[in-house]
Amino acid sequence: MIRHILTALALTAPAAALAQDEVSIALDWTLNTNHVGLIAARDRGLYADAGLEVDILPYSDTSSTALLAAGAADFAYMTSLGFMSARAGGADITALWVTMQHETGRLVYNSDNPDITRPADLSGKTYAGFGSDWEDALISTMIEHDGGEPVYDTVTLGTGAYEALATGAVDFTLEVATWEGVNSEILGRDQSSFAYADYGVPDQQNGYIGTRAEVLAEKPEMVERFMEATQAGYAWAAENPEAAAELLIEAGDFPNEELVQGSMQKIVEGGFLRDGDVPVGTIDAARFARMARFLFDSGVLSGTDGAPLTWPGEVSDWYDQGWMAD
């Protein structure tokens, strides 16, 4: 394994001499705690020790998945939906890693709203959304699973959804428990939530790191070094959440440091980053397939003509974790 080679190299050459392969990874969003392992691997010298000079590309108007598929980045950090949509649509990209071992998203509403006690109560209510087909598939599934009619009004507000909910202008929205959820707690908002997996939606993993098939084929040793150093960065963050939060704060521009610190604690204490003895970054084959099937069956995944894609019958070739093998 390449880790043994790296150990030998580290004993015979300084890190600077090994930093010869320049690689890049595009982020899916502005820097946040989902990316903490990348920052840890870079700023703690793990990439340098692996003979890599890694450029972490900031979020832009072009999605990380599109940048990867177009060859503008060697790797990409991608949302589950972003990756699966691109792969289903024919992009020759492969997932190598997944960050969050369980769904961090949830449906949230104000606790003092007497009209909402279960998902079925969302029928006829107003949802503050973000403009994706995934949202309707998710919410409709939850309402139907609870015995309600999936009929509700939607106003697309983007990040303005959270303020609209807090003021009572809308009835419910979706949030990431490890970020917006933490922020709501800091602001003292009294909100309640429903977990997707409790109402018919598969518990998904999220935060994929992937590359193109040609990179895997032409530079397998580089891919292995990058992924092993990345895994070491996330493993360190899982074991040292406070220090990891400080490292991330130093690397970014965060107006609320308490949010970063609280988010790291939520990630670690909630078992999102490390699930028992399972190594960080492990893709669960069964859950991967269940979520892919859910997206196909819900009509979320569509072709260039906008028509829903047909379930291919197998998605095991969409990911490759051979770099993890001993």
UniProtKB/TrEMBL annotation:
Q: What start and end residues bound the annotated signal peptide?
A: 1-19
Please name the Pfam families in this protein's record: NMT1 (PF09084)
Q: Which reaction does it catalyse?
A: N(6)-(pyridoxal phosphate)-L-lysyl-[4-amino-5-hydroxymethyl-2-methylpyrimidine phosphate synthase] + L-histidyl-[4-amino-5-hydroxymethyl-2-methylpyrimidine phosphate synthase] + 2 Fe(3+) + 4 H2O = L-lysyl-[4-amino-5-hydroxymethyl-2-methylpyrimidine phosphate synthase] + (2S)-2-amino-5-hydroxy-4-oxopentanoyl-[4-amino-5-hydroxymethyl-2-methylpyrimidine phosphate synthase] + 4-amino-2-methyl-5-(phosphooxymethyl)pyrimidine + 3-oxopropanoate + 2 Fe(2+) + 2 H(+)
Any one GO molecular function term: transferase activity
Q: Does the keyword Transferase apply?
A: yes
GO BP terms, alphabetized? thiamine biosynthetic process
UniProt entry keywords in alphabetical sequence? Iron, Metal-binding, Pyridoxal phosphate, Signal, Thiamine biosynthesis, Transferase
Record's superkingdom? Answer: Bacteria
The record's annotation in InterPro entries points to: NMT1/THI5, SsuA/THI5
Q: Report the residue ranges that make up the SsuA/THI5-like domain in this protein.
A: 32-244
List the pathway annotation: Cofactor biosynthesis; thiamine diphosphate biosynthesis
This molecule's function is given as: Responsible for the formation of the pyrimidine heterocycle in the thiamine biosynthesis pathway. Catalyzes the formation of hydroxymethylpyrimidine phosphate (HMP-P) from histidine and pyridoxal phosphate (PLP). The protein uses PLP and the active site histidine to form HMP-P, generating an inactive enzyme. The enzyme can only undergo a single turnover, which suggests it is a suicide enzyme.
Task: Give the quaternary structure.
Answer: Homodimer.
Q: Which family does it belong to?
A: Belongs to the NMT1/THI5 family.
- Spell out the protein name for this chain: Thiamine pyrimidine synthase
- Organism (species): Maritimibacter harenae
